[in-house]
Amino acid sequence: MTTRPAAVIVLAAGEGTRMKSSIPKVLHELSGRSLVGHAVAAAQSLEPEHLSVVVGHGRDQVTAHLADAAPAVTTAIQEEQLGTGHAVQCALAMLPELSGVVVVTYGDVPLLSGDTLRALIDQHEADSNGVTVLTAHVADPTGYGRIVRDEHGAVLRIVEHKDADEETRRITEMNSGIYAFDADVLRSGLARLTADNVQGELYLTDVLGLARADGRRVGALVTGDAWQTEGVNDRSQLAALNREMNRRVTTQWMRAGVTIIDPATTWIDVTVTLERDVVLRPGVQLHGSTRIHEGAEIGPDSTLRDTTVDRGAVVIRTHAEGAEIGPHANVGPFSYLRPGTRLGKKGKIGGFVETKKAEIGEGSKVPHLSYVGDATIGDGVNIGAGTIVANYDGVHKHHTTVGDHTFVGSDSVLVAPVELADGSYVAAGSTVTSHTEPGDLAVARARQRNVSGWVDRRRPGTSTLEAARRARARQTGSDVVEGSDQ
Ligand code: UD1
Ligand code: CA
């Protein structure tokens, strides 16, 4: 069955005091998405007609985040947090009159999957329920609402921990707070809620008892996967759920044909794409829109954000953001690729090299100790060790072009703006400030001058002078008299 729910309502107005944070709880991140982003993604997989997030604490920040991350979502404001029932009332007040299935979930339960919500709706429809609640059996249900069933196992009502007697508190089946409601049942139940309970709140959970009293069927989907019902209240739970989410993500990629040497130290955002026969070595973090193509090898110890690595490339101990690494290219170890780096097929960016807005052509190499920024480097170029592109004059950034098959000698400075023609050379140690023509050798350094006998005159009594004398003796074939430097 593929019923589209009339609406999914995500409750996210709570304060989250235990996070001890100036950031609203639902904006904390896990696996590359905010907590509320995970809730919205699960909801969106159901293709609901309406998707509403109830916001309260930190609502400006949450609303701005949603406008950016999920523009199709509408928000409803709950000024005061008068309870989960009140929160749903706030959402319904903002929506047109609904009929069909209304799903309610929380903004702080990030592992809940769209598949589980789908299964909840399917059971709700198959059993013609008025309400179906997602539940789980847990070892320690302290704090949760308990599922009270009759002698036949039918759900009677939910009792909050704080309102429960000793016997009810022994029930280990907990309310996840995730439900599928028939829209009429929800509306009619909400209209009759009272704050007649220990917390003085309007409890959404009371709608189940009311539905049952009205003669509607109330069902439960018991999940064996309690992680999917767990909320984040503090940072230690955030870390635990993050690890479990990552375990699930890495397992899914291994099943899809990716080799992950050490899943425990490999962190992959849910937004990342990997192809078959990718190898991820220990200590790799892949973030954002990163995409790794077939057979590429990443790691150990590399962090890639919004970076594309093409087929068969090898990236070792690298930090890359907004970079494109071409097929069969080599990067690392100890390379820093900043946004706008584009390395061509079979190119190389080596150790202690930093690049930014740098297009480096096919088969070109920047192998050692260089900075290349605001530069276009052609095909088959060799940039010698220690070359620096001086792109910044203190006020403006300027562009540098290095033509195809040009050879830049070690320890050169290319002072932008400058253009080296195709097929030219730069002598090692040059400070290049003007353009070259094809076939030129640019030499931009002082000519060498040797001052003969300087060490004899100015460094008497040193081991350097002894070495010089020994070398002269070897050249002339005579003996050196040890210590005869007076
Ligand atoms: C609620 C359920 C409880 C269930 C538990 C699961 C009720 C009365 N109780 O407990 O049976 O076991 O969730 O975690 O529903 N929220 C609002 N506005 C409010 C109150 C809450 O948006 O006025 C949001 C919170 O941001 C949170 C969610 O609703 O995302 C649950 O609120 P929380 O206070 O954590 O749950 P409880 O009410 O303790
Ligand atoms: Ca909670």
From TrEMBL:
Cellular compartments annotated: Cytoplasm
Pathway(s) the chain acts in: Nucleotide-sugar biosynthesis; UDP-N-acetyl-alpha-D-glucosamine biosynthesis; UDP-N-acetyl-alpha-D-glucosamine from N-acetyl-alpha-D-glucosamine 1-phosphate: step 1/1; Nucleotide-sugar biosynthesis; UDP-N-acetyl-alpha-D-glucosamine biosynthesis; N-acetyl-alpha-D-glucosamine 1-phosphate from alpha-D-glucosamine 6-phosphate (route II): step 2/2; Bacterial outer membrane biogenesis; LPS lipid A biosynthesis
Positions that bind acetyl-CoA: A385, N391, Y392, S410, A428, R445
InterPro entries: Bifunctional_GlmU, GlmU-like, GlmU_C_LbH, Hexapep, MobA-like_NTP_Trfase, Nucleotide-diphossugar_trans, Trimer_LpxA-like_sf
Ranges where the record places region Disordered: 466-486
GO molecular function, one term: glucosamine-1-phosphate N-acetyltransferase activity
Superkingdom per UniProt: Bacteria
Cofactor: Mg(2+)
Residues annotated as domain MobA-like NTP transferase: 8-144
Function summary: Catalyzes the last two sequential reactions in the de novo biosynthetic pathway for UDP-N-acetylglucosamine (UDP-GlcNAc). The C-terminal domain catalyzes the transfer of acetyl group from acetyl coenzyme A to glucosamine-1-phosphate (GlcN-1-P) to produce N-acetylglucosamine-1-phosphate (GlcNAc-1-P), which is converted into UDP-GlcNAc by the transfer of uridine 5-monophosphate (from uridine 5-triphosphate), a reaction catalyzed by the N-terminal domain.
Subunit structure: Homotrimer.
Protein name: Bifunctional protein GlmU
Organism: Phytoactinopolyspora mesophila
Name of encoding gene: glmU
